[in-house]
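Section 5.1 Outputs to date
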Amino acid sequence: MVHIIKKKTTRFNRHFSDRYDRVGASWRRPKGIDSVVRRKWRGQIRMANIGYGNAKATRNVHPDGLKHFNVHNEKDLELLLMRNTTHAAVIGSKVGKKTRICIINRAKELDIKIVNESAKVRKEETD
């Protein structure tokens, strides 16, 4: 497993989003002719650019060391058959209980890790 090192963990906020409520926080590139952020004056917020990208080997890798893959039926698990060491299955939130149980049983047969295995499935109580 490769150790995950993120270059930047905080988000890039839009210029003046902290000053005005009408300006949202999601990043937009400043385009004004006098913009101090666009001109990269010291003391201003940093602009997002390609240099902040993470290493290709660890991009989209979660803290468990695996890449997550959304699964909505048993057939989707077949795609992870040869990649069960690098990818983990995530059962979609809209999947019902009956299909969810079928997916979990099939994943155990194929030795595929499911990240949210216990979600929306209760253990049956025995008397």
